[in-house]
Structure formats: structure tokens, C-alpha cells
Amino acid sequence: MTKGRILSGMQPSGRFHLGNYMGALENWVKLQYEYECFFSIVDWHALTSSYEDTSKIPERIHEMAIDWLSAGLDPERNVIFVQSHVKEHAELHLLLSMITPLSWLERVPTYKDKLQQLGIQGKDINTYGFLGYPVLMTADIILYKADTIPVGEDQLPHLELSREMVRRFNNLYQPIFPEPKPSLSKSSILPGIDGRKMSKSYGNEIPFSASPDEFRSRIRLMITDPNRVKRTDLGNPDVCTVYTFHKIFNGEQCSEVEKACRSAEIGCVDCKKSLAEKMITNLADIHVRRMELEANPARVKEILIYGAERARKVAASTMEEVRHVMHLA
């Protein structure tokens, strides 16, 4: 039985945090054993909202590659590459932009919301590139004829637009592209240390690359039950960020932690300490792989070059077919 093919990517937009790992990367590591996977560091997408200063992009690409590899993505099992290293993405994006109605792009629910949100931050992103983000995303997907796309529910409108573009292309020319179907990610939602969504913009993140000491330091700052003032006060784990982390990283002892909190058998300081040690143990293999990769940057570069070569072979074949059916050959 032929495996399905997945395409997914992330923007190299800054330091990767634990919420990113739990939200997507952990799922990718599982999917690599079930599908033929193409994973792309989408640096061109990063330009849609951060075009003013591109000087840090190369460093961020390198860091993201280390994040992925240390998490357990296998460069032999998967095609791991940088988007801009495969120029066919730009060509297919151009051709798709010729057949995509402007009204389709303007109706994407997240477009106006993000335009307003980033506008408040002083960013001028009222550009063609930002509006055309879904066209480039569609090119990324269908260039490799991916049939399955791991997404969160908030990304479904973008994927449905991609499916519309595929149908339009197939109807105008020939049906050479599969309609990509969503695979909803079943991932744990990890809050930040203040209980809000984990985000670099909030400053509440736990870096994925954190050392054991950095883990301990960040966890010490976590918000606990605000009504538990004294060590002897009974706690309420339902409103405690530390307990939320215990449920994810310490599942087998979670009921014991809950009981000890409610009965005041354990204080918040000790509860945080036990969580930190459990997380450090759970992520130990990732930390070891990271140290090895950080000590060998040439190896990371080789992996990305190798991945781009493999991606280009597939992309070149697809573009030959596209040019043929569009009579551009």
C-alpha cells in the first residue's frame, strides 16, 4: 500500500519554544513513520510580515533545523529543506497567482484580523505578499503533490482555499493535482508560565532549546493557585499552570499530584521542583541530540543541502508537468 504524502512547514521567525514543539513538531515526529513527509523551513513566508530586517533569517534557519533534528525528525526518512533553496516554489506561486481571484484572498478570515493586529504593532503589511500568502502556501503543497496536510482548526480556511485553487487549476488545464485533505493535529495546548497562551510576544515562553537550569528557572516563575497564600492552604490544581504541565509531562503521577495539592501535602515550590525534574528527564534525549548538532554546524548544513536536492527532483518533475498542461513548455 502506497503511503500518503505530507507537506508541512514553519517560519523561521524567532526562538522556538516548547508550545511550538507540543503544537506541531511532536506530531510530525509521529507522522514520519506513517507518511512520506516533506518538511520545509518556509523563509519566504517569514518575509510577509518581517521584510524590513532579513539579516537574522540565516541564523534562524540554522536554529530551526537543529530544533527539528533534535526533536527526532530523521533526515533520511523525511525530506527536510529550506523553501528558498527550491526555486520552483516561486515559479508555481507566480502561475497560481495568475488564476486566483482577488476576492478569494480578501475573504480569508485571518487576513483582516492579522492585518489589524500587526498594524497595531506598527508593521505595514498591507502588501501583495501578505495578501497572497495563501497562494504561496498552495504552491508549497501542490509542488510535491501532497495529499495530507497536518493543520490546526484555525488553519482550515487557508487549506480550503488551497483546495479551491487546485480545483480551479485542474478544471482550467488538466487534473494533475490531488486536493489536499486536512489532518487535524491532536496536540497538547501548552500555556505559558503566566497561564496565557505560550507566545514570544508575551514573554511567557519556555525555550525548546532551554538547558536544565533554564527549565528550572522558568518553571519557578510559573503562576499557581492565586488563593493559596500559605504552604498549609489547600490548593486548587484546576486553576494552576503547574498542574496543567503535570498533566502533560507527568501523566502517570498526575492524580497523586492533584491529591497532594488539594490536601496541602505538597507546597507549590516542591511541586514546581518535581515538575522541572520530570520535564528535564522527558526531554533529555532531545537535549543530548541538540548538543551534538550545535557542536557540528557543518552537519546541519549538509542535511539541508541534501534535503533541497531531494526536494528539487520532485519539484522539477511537477513543474515540467505544469508547463506542459499550460502549454508553456
Written account of the structure:
- Helix content is 53%, strand content 7%.
- It has 329 residues and is mainly alpha-helical.
- The model has no long low-confidence stretch (mean pLDDT 93).
- The protein folds into 2 domains: 5-190 and 297-325, HUPs (Rossmann fold); 210-285, Orthogonal Bundle (Tyrosyl-Transfer RNA Synthetase).
- Strands 1-2-3 form a 3-stranded parallel sheet.
- It is built from 15 helices and 5 strands.
Principal-axis shape equals: elongated
Strand content: 5-15%
Helix content: 40-55%
* E-strand count: 5
Give the CATH class of the largest domain.
Alpha Beta
What is the average of the pLDDT values?
93
Structural class: mainly alpha
How many helices in DSSP terms?
15
Order of helical and strand elements: EHEHHEHHHHHEHEHHHHHH
Count structural domains.
2
User: Largest beta sheet: what is the strand line-up?
Assistant: 1-2-3
Task: Record the SSE blueprint.
Elements: E1 5-10, H1 18-31, E2 36-41, H2 43-46, H3 57-71, E3 79-82, H4 88-99, H5 102-106, H6 109-120, H7 128-131, H8 133-142, E4 148-151, H9 156-172, E5 181-184, H10 212-220, H11 241-249, H12 254-262, H13 268-282, H14 284-294, H15 297-325
Parallel strand pairs: 1-2, 2-3, 4-5
Helix pairs in contact: 3-14, 4-8, 4-15, 8-9, 10-13, 11-13
